[in-house]
């Protein structure tokens, strides 16, 4: 009888072909096909195939199963299986009651109600039963999202609490008796996204609108923003996402789509260009998600209208208290509805509004001040949007000056004009005009000048004129009515330009200034000795006076007269010509003087006599005047011919006809005669005599007998010789040099005595005669030979030849050496011995040898030679110090002279080496150790260029000491194995430097400090280093050793090879642990493979069904590759891996991976059931080095029983999925909790817990800095890290308002609410007009000493100047450049030049600027309305893009320069960099410290930074800046404040500078 148990399985058709009904598979246990018999299947209800009570023969049953098809879904079936054979009839073998799964619902639809609600509708299954429904809502996409499940009994069903804009899939199942339909009906839908936030206009001009809007809140899910742009009269046109062009003009609207930028959503923007100026545009924005569109957010904005074309003022309308302004409308297409006219210069005047069609003219009259300048600005208005202003300035006419007066400066004659300005008027200068009053009414020139004071000195008025003078007040080049006065000027004083005496009279003429006018002249003259005065009037400019006394003196005065005013007089004095003297004669004559006499004149006044004389040069020389009738003229020039005149003089006026006389003076003779002689010539020289010389006369004769009796015996012939002679030499022919006259007398006898007579002649007169006696020089025709012996070093012998007596007269030979202590030697001319010896000389000395012939004391020209004596040798040599490479030699000092010592020795190559020294010792280095050397010392005197002499040599032999050997010459590996290397080396005997004791090889891994040593005998020249690690690089160092020590090392770097691991034994194979029908678990151990050839780094598993195939290749087939084989060849299971991290045993399961058909590379795919496999392990020492074990014993997988257990497996899997989903939800919650906890950890600690102050005594600060900076600034890093979150818990509500977000340069640098600086709100502006990104920060003198702000944006620079004005700040500190690293760090918020610039309603003007090496200091004037203030601007311009100022002392000097100009009571100070945190905080901290150390004995840098960070985020933003503050203080305390030397730069790679902190702003 068969077992009564069957298994039922739902077939695949039940999942895919619902319309065909439910299909079942009934599996019959055992093997019914092998048995005889018949089966009958009965079921109820009778709906399905095979039909009820169908029978099946055992042999017809395939795969032991009976298929049931086309059953009713959602129906409870009762099945019975009967069996009949030869022994049993219709035996009930199995029965079961089975409920089939229901069909799914139909007609599923979804209606989106709102952003979080949707309505689900459906129809029941078309056939079969059902008891309810199950809804599964799956968020799309599914990654990271969990599905929600709902039960429902009826349709419809409302889904709530959905995410706005999110996409979902609804999966609807039918449920019958607890069973869900296998299939389901699904529908995808998207909820409505949330509405976007509020609009703000980020930028607009005449043709462009750039709008921003906030993301929806809560954000929900959305993909795009849909932006609709339209006008009331013209639509829009679709364009690209980035812009819209309104074309054509009648288009109704334009739509663009802006993509969501991601999480978290931030403000979005859209730009519209080519718009109509001034037109109103409707803008709406909606979020879109999968076709769903939110409710729109709408706004209307206008473009800026075009400005008026021009602004002018009606001609003639400008008075002292009113004016009319006229303007032209825009000349381009624009829309606007009115004009706004504003008058700047009054206290907050209300603007005037005029309609677009109103007359474009407006009169201002009320409250205007004379002379004041007003600025009129006209704007077009479209709604509330104003155009850029068109402006023009107008200045009212100032009031006339009062109290005009004039006066004349008596000292200079200048006219001084004074006046008083009208106190009711404005004026900046005055125009002073004057012209001459001309009665002829002709053309007249008016002179104008502009002055700033209320008085003026007129220095350019013409003399002798009558002037009209007018003064106008001026305000901005507008003049008032004039105030006038009249003033006459004195004529210029005439100048007497010619006053000449005549016989018995005077002629006088004068001139006047060409610019002066005068009516007449008054001339007055009076005689000086009688006082008689004569006065006359004339209209001409000259006058002749006659009948005056000869020689008398007269005073004259000339005055000009004009308009009744007299000029200053011009006064002069002049005498009349006197009569000349009479009877001039010469009474006495000497060598240089004459006495002259004369008679006085008749009938004339005179005061003195004037004496003059003249020579041939034609010039008269005036002598001092005399009173007497005679005078002696001295210092006359000898040899000159003189003309002498005597004249009378009266007050410097001489008579016109003086008498004269002529006289010649005797010339001077020669004196102080010198002679320059040679053998046949005598050159006579004497100082040139004073006075005139026409020529010289010279005569000479021989003073001794011609022949010597001895000479007559030798010479039989007589030759004619000159005895006497004479010559006359003109002064033009003589040679003059340095005031001396030279004359050559030639053809004389050598060695003879002569007498010379000399005199001079001038104008025919001779001087006295001078006599001079001298002798000619004898001749020398002798040769000298110097005899010098090396053995005799203190004597010198000279041999010479005789000079013939026939060529010269002489009596002696003279010999002399250059040493003055050696007496000269003489030998008679007739001495027959021709040898002279000098003894007791100095050895080695260079002597100059001189020889003459002498005639009566007169020497011939010398014959000179030069020679040096040999120096004396040394007597001994000793070695005072001997080392391995050096020998120090010493020797005695020889007598005499020498230059140096020459030390010689032979090196090992046989080369002679020479060393020179000045001392009696020398150290010879570079010697070879352990060698014998012979040293020779030679004394040298002189040089190669000056008669070098060497002494006899002296030698001695010495040996160097033993030393360390030299480098090993050859050190190479000859056999390299994974764990050992054999080396060879060689050291030549010449490099032993002693006796070699051993060789040592030191080795270790490259980069490691651990080394080992191996020692080898001196005779060993190769060796093996063992126990190395395969695949490692080693450094090997070899050294030879002597008794002294080791020599230098030679390094060899070698890498041990990695080879394949040795093959394990045949019994070393993986073993079976367990198996299934599709997998095998094996076990292998780390010790399977030896690491002799290298460390095993990876393992791979090789599986084979057919082990006969090759499995030795590196690239093995994969699981996918062997699927085409009936019997699988060897394949590799997975990529190589290393399992032995924490154990030495690995259990690996083969066949676990699924879906290997679609995966590339190796994959651990399932094994075949009931199949026998062999496994081996592959070990890798390198990617291409491996060895395999032998194959394991055969392992067979189990048979596949899937059909029996699938009915049980599916419910288990469903339960498992549910459990895993629950665990995933809980895990996600835990992750969120962990993230939240970690976020809470990042919050700052309360002050009660955290230490807020760390003072350090100033005397201990240097040690404190050393400790903090140790270990690469480790303690600085720790301390700075503690400040990381200080203050971060404080609110920044105002900064995060939508209207204020565009005003922040960086999105994460926001001001705290409690300390932010608040501007005065503007009356006509929207919310946020009180906001600027700035905080009060404490300083040393006040808790609100500084206002720290960001570098102004172009859109916030007006707010920056409002901050400076409303805080009444006296200084701005700027610590950044406008552009750094190619990026804008700060707007150029001040004027570029000296022209004033308006920033809002504040006018800023640069007054002055001083440039320094690292900073600039400027002074600005701020004007708002009628008020003005001065503010200083300190710009530190060399803060580097990275790091801090180098050297840090630069910042100290900048802070001191700031404090020298801004005292502590002037506060607050505005400070900014780019973000307004890092550099600004560094500056403020240093300013506080430099003030604190003047009064306190300790400093608290940590506390200062802590206090600043409580007021503004991230003050002193980087660790590098924090260290810089300490470095600055250290430099000040050590007195190195003004040092400019290099310093160590402290870097923190986490940051650049405070400008790189959060460049995520807009």
Automatic annotation (TrEMBL):
| Stretches for region Disordered | 706-729, 1543-1562
Q: Which reaction does it catalyse?
A: O-phospho-L-tyrosyl-[protein] + H2O = L-tyrosyl-[protein] + phosphate
Which parts of the sequence belong to the Tyrosine specific protein phosphatases domain? 1449-1523
Please note every region of biased composition (Acidic residues): 706-719, 1550-1562
Keyword Transmembrane helix found:
yes
The GO annotation for biological process reads: neuron development
User: Which domain of life does the UniProt lineage start with?
Assistant: Eukaryota
Supply the PROSITE patterns for this chain. Answer: FN3, TYR_PHOSPHATASE_1, TYR_PHOSPHATASE_2, TYR_PHOSPHATASE_PTP
Indicate the transmembrane segments per the record: 1203-1225
Question: Which EC number applies?
Answer: 3.1.3.48
Which keywords describe this protein according to UniProt?
A: Glycoprotein, Hydrolase, Membrane, Protein phosphatase, Repeat, Signal, Transmembrane, Transmembrane helix
According to the record, the signal peptide region is: 1-21
Q: What is its main location?
A: membrane
Q: What is this protein called?
A: protein-tyrosine-phosphatase
- Species, as recorded: Cloeon dipterum
Q: What is the lineage of its organism?
A: Eukaryota, Metazoa, Ecdysozoa, Arthropoda, Hexapoda
